[in-house]
Specification:
The protein is an all-alpha fold. The chain has a single domain, classed as ABC transporter involved in vitamin B12 uptake, BtuC. Helix content is 71%, strand content 1%. The chain has a two-stranded antiparallel ribbon. Helix 4 packs antiparallel against helix 12. The longest helix has 27 residues.
Amino acid sequence: MSNRPPGEKKPVLQAPLATEAITQVKRLSDKQPTTFIGRMKNELQFIRGRGAFEISIVLAVLLIGYIVASVISPTGFAFLNPNNLSGVISQSIPVLAILGLAAGILMIAGEFDLSLGPAITFNAIVFIKFSESFGLAAGIIGGILSGVFIALVNGSIVVFTRIPSFIATLGMSFFWAGASIFVNGTTPAILTKSRDEVMVFLFAQDFGSFRSQLVWLLILGVLAWFFLHRHKLGNHIFAVGGNESAAEAISINSKKIKLIAFATFGGLVGFASILIAVRTSSMQPGGSATQDFTLFAIAAAVVGGTSLNGGRGSVIGIIVGAALIELIRNGLLLAKAPGFYITLFVGITIVIASIFNKVMEGKAR
């Protein structure tokens, strides 16, 4: 029996105030740095976690060694020669870095495209033919869309048939090499009347201390960084490449994301094809002149910390990896080493970088 007087209401137990409950909730955003120094430290940890920091140290050591060797022997090792610096830093590195970004983004998504070399040939021929027939603007659009088309065809085969991309794109590499011969014949496609001052200024102009290719690398590098590291689609690419089943469990359409990664790959390869075509003024059908780009682009991504298993990599690391490969190639050429040493180096570099990436992945876990 209750001793409460008649008519008196039963006291109600009140829950903690909503504001108090909210203040006890911890959010992921609470751990984000708010100061400039804190953000820089967080970004450095981000870069280091993907191997870019370590490979940057290797690049810095190599550069110091080259500079010392060039100062000691300016004629025997002419690394500091302005023509050499302009050719390597402003011409060779940007093209390989853009191709490395293409291969790297696709590798982060968990896929490969071994038709990169023949695709460059086909895209360059489309660019040359369209430029000669319809003007520069049509040539640029045609060259880039050609790259996207080739990549989407390859990607559709991979995504919808579940054939491993390594096998599917290896077969398609022969197809696109033959397609370039079918489109242009066996004679080289040559830029003649369309290679005017505007085309050269945009894609191959020498400004003294740098060339147009370096400007394009900076632009595309910034866009790729925001896309891959600051955009939702970039996060989805990392998620699909890291664990496709887990990504689908949280409603990420893995097929759509992989096709986007293939299309991005194709667009970058198409643009790099234009840079190569304008620089050389011609392109030989069949893909024999561009087949090495496939190996070197994958090597740049791997050396820069991109995982061969997908889900790991960074834009900065890929660009640094491309710079390291081109500088070592340049050093071997300046040292008058036989040509096969370059291929030997790339093969060893891929193996060593893969081992290093495995070690870094183990530490990340």
